Amino acid sequence: MRKRGGPAISLFSFQDIITSVMGILLFVALMLALRLKTVASDAVVATQEETVDDEIRELMQRKADLEQEFARWKAIMNDLDAVSPAMLSTMRTRIQELEQQLRATEERTEKEFAQHNQDIRDYSQEVASLQNNKRTLDEELARAKDDLHRLTSMSELTFNVSGFESSNRYVLDMHPTAWRLTLLNPAQNTSVIAVWGGTIAARRVKALQWCDQRGPNDYVLLLVRPSAIVAFREIVERLRQRSIPLGFEPLGEDQEMHLTAGS
Fold first, then answer.
1. Is residue 238 part of a domain?
2. How far apart are CA 198 and CA 177, in angstroms?
3. Stretch (H or E) spanning 99
4. Residue 261 has what pLDDT?
5. Contact, 117 vs 123, CB < 8 A?
6. Range with the lowest mean pLDDT among 43-47, 135-139, 240-244?
7. Residues facing 192 on adjacent strands
8. Going by C-beta distance under 8 Å and a sequence separation of 6 or more, which residues neighbour residue 232?
9. Residue 227's domain spans which residues?
């Protein structure tokens, strides 16, 4: 316990200091608040001024556009006022002519389009027909190749020459070594009546001379070899010119043949 007679401690000065500091802080806070309010108001005013300036510029641009549009329409009205009734009639007639030309062009285009479609259909049908013909020819060619392969694979052939029994039947074998001319007589016998040797050209001359001596009652069978194909064509043409019936068979270059006269 303190003694009552000791010195007393006073807190008045400390309280004054605290009160003064709090007053200063409040005063500073009020000053800051007023400053912030002023700055905010200035910013709002500046923003509003910029917005107003933009609106003014936009309105001025709109005004200029409207003035230009008004000037353009005014010029159009002046041009319309300057158009005479005769000019309007001419323009109306020209428009009608253009409409007629347009309709004619549309009709012609439709017809051409329809014709083009029809041509495409016809072409498609023709292509289909050609494809069918190609398949048929391919099948015939395959059969002919098989026959030719079968013939060329044989070293010896036998021909039964029947038909045209009432005619004089001749067989001309165009062999590479010599051409042999065989006659099939009515007794169904075969006899070699001529052998033509020498070059292919010499044999061709003799064969053509012999063809000139034949008549419509004769029949000629040609056994053609690859070496005599050119002469064969000339002989066929000569026989056809004289209306002599004929036939032909292709043989290999070295194939041998035998003839039998069938009735």
1. yes
2. 8
3. helix 85-152
4. 52
5. no
6. 43-47
7. 182
8. 174, 222, 224, 248
9. 157-261
Domain membership of residue 210 (yes or no) is yes
Q: Is 198 left (phi over 0), alpha (psi -120 to 50) or beta?
A: left
> Among 108, 104, 106, which residue's Cα sits nearest to residue 116?
108
What is the band of 45 on the pLDDT scale with cuts at 50, 70, 90?
A: low
More reliable by pLDDT, 81 or 127? 127
Give the CATH number for residue 204.
3.30.420
> How does pLDDT run across 49-95, given as a tens digit for each residue?
778 778 888 888 888 888 888 888 888 777 766 666 777 788 788 88
In a domain, residue 84? The reply is no
Rounded to whole angstroms, how far apart are CA atoms 168 and 210? 14
**Cα distances (angstroms) measured from residue 17 to each of 12, 30, 94:** 9, 20, 105
> How far is Cα 67 from Cα 64, in angstroms, rounded to an integer?
5
Per the structure, the count of domains in the chain is 1
Global pTM value? 0.41
Q: Of the candidates 160, 215, 166, which has an alpha carbon nearest to the alpha carbon of residue 186?
A: 166
CB 206 within 8 A of CB 196: yes
Kindly state the tokens that stand for 256.
């041998």
Q: Alpha carbon of 2 to those of 6, 9, 25, 252: distances in Å?
A: 7, 12, 38, 158
Residue type, 199: T
- CA–CA gap between residue 199 and residue 205 (Å, rounded): 10
Q: Which of helix, strand or coil describes residue 109? A: helix
Domain annotation covers residue 152? no
Query: Could you read off the pLDDT of 154-201 as tens digits, one per residue?
Result: 444 444 455 556 678 888 999 889 999 988 765 556 788 899 998 989
